[in-house]
Amino acid sequence: MGDNERGRVRVEHSAKRVRAYFGGELVVDTTSPRLVWEIPYYPAYYLPLSSVRAELKPTGETKRSPSRGDGVVHDVVVNGRTAQGAALTYPDSPFEELRDLVRFEFSAMDEWLEEDEPIYVHPRDPYTRVDVLSSSRHVRVALDGVTLAASSQPRILFETLCPPRYYLPLSDVRFDLLRPSDTQTQCPYKGTATYWSVEVNGVTHDDLVWIYRSPLPESQKIAGMACFFSEKVDLFVDGELQEKPKTPWS
User: Fold this and answer.
1) How many domains are contained in the chain?
2) Is there a single domain that holds both residue 21 and residue 92?
3) Which residues pair with 11 in a beta bridge?
4) Positive or negative, the Cα torsion across 38, 43, 48, 51?
5) How confident is the model over 48-52, as a mean pLDDT?
């Protein structure tokens, strides 16, 4: 549930210890975090104001939420360093539970920990699951009639609400068609991905294939394997052309 559902907001308690650091200093440390679904896709952490170690300085700016009310924007100040506009409180929220909580801008903090393990991008959704399964299905990837990869030993990654992703051994990929890219992306469930572009028939297709060289523990089975955007290539599984999925990357 999000702001598109006026008057409703989903809040859940978590039992994890959550800490955030900025400028080498501890900003917040709590064992009573709340997960708040500001948007439908993943939650944000809202943390008790009583657990905050940094100084929160109101900026005078407010942000209006149809469901949560008027948010007061704060700078986060620790040890002489300032994260501008990095904290948001709702002291007069129609939801009483939110009034004594603060949300820190995830990317504004240097480090987030759940218990003693770092997390990235955003808090993990407890209702999202990632399964990586070894398979013997034959997978072929083609573009403009040119085969880019073919393998009978894929690993298929199934992620909640996402299309299956087919990760292929590098030895089964046409490396002569790949061009290095500087692009990197991060996923809270898989880690940091690096990319290649693909050149076919004189045309370069940017960032068409990615690899997680050092994935997070729950996704170790895809380490060092290549995956193509099935939204942008022709994907054949056991000889059958698959329908291109409709996603934000289509």
Assistant:
1) 2
2) yes
3) 36
4) negative
5) 98
